[in-house]
Write the structure tokens for this entry.
Amino acid sequence: MKLSATYVFEALPEKVFAALIDPAILQKCIEGCEKMEKTGEDTYDANIKIGVAGIKGSYVGKIRIEEKKPPESITLQAEGKGGPGWVKGTARIQISPEGEGSELQCESEGQVGGLIAQVGSRLVEAVGKKMQDEFFRKLGKQLEG
Amino acid sequence: MIPAAFDYFRPSTLDEALGLLVKHGEDAKVLAGGHSLIPAMKLRLSQPKVVVDIGRIGDLRSIGERDGKIAIGALTTHFEIESSDLLLRSCPLLPEVAGQIGDVQVRNKGTIGGSCVHADPAGDWPAAMLALDAEFEITGPRGSRTVAANDFFVDMLTSAVESGEILKSIRVPVTPKTVAYVKIAQKASGFALTGVAAVVDKAQKSVAVAVTGVAAKAYRAAGAESALRGLELSAATIATAAQKAANGVDPLSDIHASAEFRAHLARVQTKRALELAASRG
Amino acid sequence: MSVTTENAPKVKASQGYFGRAMKRVEDPRLIKGIATYVDDLKIPGVLHAEFVRSPHANAKIISIKTDTAKKLRGVIGIFTGADVNEKVGTIPCASPIPGGKTPEHTVLAGARVYFVGHPVAVVVAETRTIARDALDLTDVDYEPLPAVIDPEKALEKDSPLTHPELGTNVAFTWSLPGGDVDGAFKEADSVLKLRIVHPRLTPMAIEPRGCAASWHAGESSLTLWTSTQIPHLVRTLLPGLIRIPENKLRVVAPEVGGGFGSKLNLYAEEAVVSHLAMRLDRPVKWIEGRRENAAATVHGRDQIADNEIAIQKDGTVLAIRSKIIADVGSYCQLLTPAIPTLTGLMLCGCYKLKAVRVDVTGVHTNKMSTDAYRGAGRPEAAYMIERLMDLVASELGLDPVEVRLKNMPESTEFPLTTATGLLYDSGNYQHALEKAQELAEWPKLIKERDAARKAGRLFGIGVSTYVEICALGPSKIMAAGGWEWGCVRIEISGKVTVITGATPHGQGQETSFAQIAADWLGVPIEDIVVLRGDTATAHFGRDTYGSRATALGGSAIVMSIEKIVEKAKTLAAALLKSTPKEIEFKDGKFFVNGDGKNALGWGQLASEAYIAKNLPPGLEPGLEASSFFEPPNCTFPFGTHIVAVDVDRETGQVNILKYIAVDDCGKQVNPLLVEGQVQGGIAQSVGAALMEHTVYDENGQLLTGEFMDYAIPRAKDIPDFILGSTETPSPSNPLGVKGVGEAGTIGATPAIANAVVDALSPLGIRHLDLPFTPERVWRAIQEKGGGS
């Protein structure tokens, strides 16, 4: 599954970048993130509930921040496993100034395995898209706040 | 295929059911016909601690005409709708949709309310509900509220019914015979690869078209509708308008159909649904 | 001893049960829901097993943490590969190809997993619910590795390896040099090429697998109930794995809800459950779920074939060259290599080719193994040759029927040796084709197509004239005996017990074998019981697959009856004060000189035989005989299927308008069962043609793991069939039967495919791969600019 999307923020690239490496903000922006604990330089253990409506699964996994090039690019990696299988995702983010704010280009790639792939494939892409949109919508709110 | 442990309640009145939902809050799920919840539970993708089975609440299972509208109890089965003389006369779109849902066993057990609340992106009912501008009566601890179809289907697998609430009934208008539901089923599941519901009002020279199976939630094909507003329906006007049936839509893609094919089918099926509906009056 | 119609038993059918359409005696219990499948067994003290399965296609197992799960109340134990693999032998392949590379197929994963669904550990608990709960608490850490998915890429140099220890993804190669292929290609006016992809299919028997094992410590004996097609082969193979003597193992196949080849295997779960029952000294049961069935029960087909066909201008087909890549999946299961090789052997179809060369490469990938699925290599062969015949016709501008007729042997040419070395037993291919055309109202159908085309519709007609191979088969060509065994016992009361080794799993042998026995013995069919499926009762057997049961199992019964009749004549002679030679046997009665008044029936003779006070000297008590039937050859059923379809230009949907099938399976014991088999076979083929496809994504995740995504046809997808038959008896068995269990599946897919391609041919489309889903057809139309 591959997604490509552009988001616009009122904040400048430096501020957007800073938010993306702040675990407290990340936790607030990742829908269903119940726990995020630092385990090393830019690596975190996380518990995340992923799904839609009543169909949700709990995943235990890791989040890593990589390839930091402040303020223009960054890569976020996440992987987790749980009852419904496993999930893995990489988001390559480019931030460029756009007027008073910035434009963020996100190229992401996701994989799922086990039960969710076997029974939920028709919804996986839509859920992924929704999670990503939700993440950047919340990020926008954090930046405003 | 064994669900996680849960407590099971089978209230006999709506008040009792609402009481149970208040008491158990987010832990509780409402069970109607069981055709969405039980498979999800058996896969353990849904693990409610409490299941409130409303299936025996008799007054939620009825079809009746009231004040020029038709009220359908949320627990009315697809088969009861498919075989209702009243609906065949007064709102024939609904029996037409019902007859195309799943198979006989599914139609005997599945309910219109359960299906709408589940809001599956490929469910058949959402297309009909949107095309008919249905109204949903939802009841909860703070009393009843009515939600229009347009606001009812919030997102993929998400309806306007909140935790603690129960969908009580659905109201649809009396319509002429100029309606149609045209569906291409996904061969495995029987859900709609594309389903298009059309309601044609020749007197007002307006049409309503709703599409399911194509996007994350069912939608009204506004572009197609406005292209036909005030026009006489003809093969040519319909064909032109139907080209707009997937405008502004982000179609789903899976092993059964790509986004491109889904959008194409939305256009073809819109054309066919409108032609069929127009031919009926 | 081998029997052919030339030296057939002297006993004649007398009451007309043989050949009569009769309802199945099995059906009432199935319809009422009172049949006993494995899951219906009530075994006191039984424990329940659930398997922890890999969610990865290819991964190293880093750790398996079972502590939390083991603490769950009611969990008896959790066993991993480290606990089990040294104590249980490996899963065998019974049809290895010399020079092939075989990975060690341990019953549970060792250091690595090789496909999604690979069993990694097994939980045993007091209830199935507890076992299921424990699955969620078992924590396996994997290190995922790149998966090998595309069998063609798997052959490239830099491909990752499914089994690194083998150093290659090639499981085996097999070549069939049938005749002077190069000479035939030189001689040809032209050579046509066609690449054909047979998609992977999932058998999806209505009853998933399941087994239960009970260890009797006092007797040191094990009983295994398993939903299998092959209890006897399991009893042959399993003792070596669980290390008990064969005569301490009883295998029972109770009611079995379909197999389609997918239960023609020895599976890891059967060995693990047996081992655990012995190890824990408690009965253990495992019932497969649908998702497990989709992921970890063998798949079928999955071949890619590059074909070249050498032809003359007049439509004569000289030779075929075919390079087949068979995706065998992670392991070679029982018959995996035999499937694509059977494709090669059957590639001549019902045509007189001079030469055929087939090169098969079996390739390991990180998927479930492929193995037998209804037709098992023949549907692929029939599909290839029948598509090629249509290609020849369209390239030369000839009528596809004429091209077929041109290349068919005459009925007088049988037995006929093919370029691939098979001996076709008997046939009259033209007759079946003519009859099918008659039923199809051929000239009218052609006119209908022409009119539809003129009106702008995409209307097509497809024909397939197929031949297949059944009654597998002579022991010399089979891995572990190709005979069949049967026993007939006249009980002391005169009732008749028939025991067959050809274990049914839905075919209706309890009815058809009773029909045979009733006629040959001259007794009412109600007096006959057919026992099957238990190695303690049916001492020998090679079971049911390859449409072999009636031809071989039925013949073993007839042989046994012949022996009993001979013995009964000796007894009757003593009682009637005559000689055996003078005793006549007719309609179940033994008499002398037409003296019906003093005739003896089976009841009297049985009573004398067992009470044994008046036996002539030297005659053993009892009236029972058993026989092994060893066939001299396989049988070769054939037929013609004709299909008319209509393709929706805008949506790509294929609508089957008309379906005609004429099948020749030799003599028919019960035409109703024949029709049922043909209907079921065609239905499965409609699935294969229009909707079925097992899909793995590029990471080896199975995307068709449930009926939500794996489409099998529903009743409304199946057209009304016009069915007919011709009857060309087989000389290979005393009944003259050929077998019909797979015919529909073999004949139908190419007929539908030819019809769809014919419908699309006005757009310039010459081939399309299966399945013809709306999007695939729509895209093909779009590419040719033929859409709306």
About this structure: DSSP finds twelve helices and 14 strands in chain B. Chain B has a mean pLDDT of 96. Chain B touches chain C through 22 residues (CB under 8 Å). The CA atoms of residues 103 and 122 of chain B lie 15 Å apart.
